[in-house]
Amino acid sequence: MSFAAPEFLWGLLALPLVVLLHFVRARRRRHQVSALFLWQRARQVAERRKRVSPTWLLLAQLLFVALATLALARPAIQRGVAPDRILVIDASASMAARDTDGVRIDKARAAAERLLAGAGRVAVVRAGLAARVLVPLTGDRGAVRRALQQLRVGDRSADLERAVALGEAVEPGAQVELITDHPAVGGGAVNDRVGYHNVAGDGVNVGISAFDLGLQQAYVGVVSNSRRPVQVQVSLSQDGAAVASGSVLVPAGGTGSITFPLPDVRGIYRAAITPPAGVEAGSPVGDALALDDEAYAGARRVTAVVQEGDQAVVKALAAVPGVTVRVNAGAAQIPADLRVLTRSDPQGLPPGSYLLFAPASPEPDYRVVREFDRGSPLMRFVDLQDVVVGLDPARTAWVMSGGWQLLASTGDLEPVLRYRDSGGVRVLQAAFNPTQTDLVLRAAFPALVANYLRQVRGDASVALGAALPPGTTVDGAAAAYALRPGIYREPGGGVALASLDSDAESRLPAPPAGAAAGARRAARGEVRPLLGEAPATSVAWILLTLALLALAAEWLLWSGLPPFRLPGVPGFLRRGSGRGR
Length: 581
Fold this sequence. Notes:
It is built from 12 helices and 31 strands. The strands form 8 sheets. It has a 9-stranded mixed β-sheet with strand order 20-19-21-22-27-26-25-23-24. A 5-stranded mixed β-sheet has the order 7-6-3-8-9, with helices on both faces.
């Protein structure tokens, strides 16, 4: 037997109260008698007997309370074997949002509690950045409930398909129940064996969807799912000290952005928004989800070592803010974020970032650049049209396989500039020497160097603050997740910076069409059978009918029917106190 509303079973605690009230409700009456010794002897005999009289009236009252409580708990007798059930719980950040009817993860726990009724063995799967089994298939309801209460949410996204597949792999043939606020995979039920339970609500939210540090500037993107435009205050701090602030107008259901100029991008930056005051759809505007109200980014000064002191290269590097340039003949062995070397062969380079120029040729073959990749990030604001380059006639022809990206070539399709990022080695290679080209005299050269340093700066920020997507495991523990924005210490002594930065999660998935009608059906008790659930017959109406019969019998007894006594009970047990109660 299972109960659809087991919380009503607490009503059985009222049974001792009924007995107590039955005992204390009797009233003493004054009678005139000729002598008291017989009454005193009768009282002594009664005191030696049971204090509580098991009358028919008390029995009817106890039956009514017990049967009514059981009926409210909605018991059902299952026919057949209870199915094994796999509970897949969405752990993405939007599940932490607060709607007018409660926090979404709390609603998910309540849905999971209802799914425990009528189930056999149960397993729990956490659906986040990675799917993980929290509780293997077990009949221990206590372990399942503890796992549900300890489940924490906040991942940047949830791979629902993989989580469902993991749930199906836990026990092939078991019933999988997906509880989420996102649309179901495929738009409806995940498949014919998977149940879908949506806990999305009407939460209104404003949050940071992007935070990035560029060259002498910081970019903050803000998203809103509000039905009206909102004005949001944005503040920026560097290593805990406030450096800038401003406001951004976010259109209804849209995005806005603000850019702050920065003289120095070194350090750890924190962007935070102050959600606007007000209430919409019963929820504070911008306050439904707190996980996206702040974001972090970090960078440190980049060190570049140049093997040969060509002034054009040194000047181009030094012109980029936040770059320290050193000239040393042993640049290949000196630790640095970027090494500028003179060599033709890129093979055998240790991990790192490199800018390679060919050695100067005694008799260069001058060519003109005719084609270059305008779509590459390295070529932004870089115009190589008609650039003259001097090539060594004895050079070895480049092979463009192995992950190389062609950036520029001459009119006869001779490659002269290429790029590769593979195996921890990033290389930007030129087939010419800086002293044998007019590229260094054009604005395209410092632009090319700045674009490449932007790529290098991404690696340079690792030692200060690598991006850590919320939901990533930390400290090597499978159950320890970085779920809140902030600074996390790494075992090697570095730090990692966690920010939600998710447009999809900040917009908060909305309830699917028809969810309101489904909620009304559930409130009236019209609950559809779960997929794969063993057939069950409700006995609530039978218990309710019996409770009403017990109530009617109690009323008849109280109304003054002739005295009753329980079979086999001594005669001093009367029908109760009748009308005198």
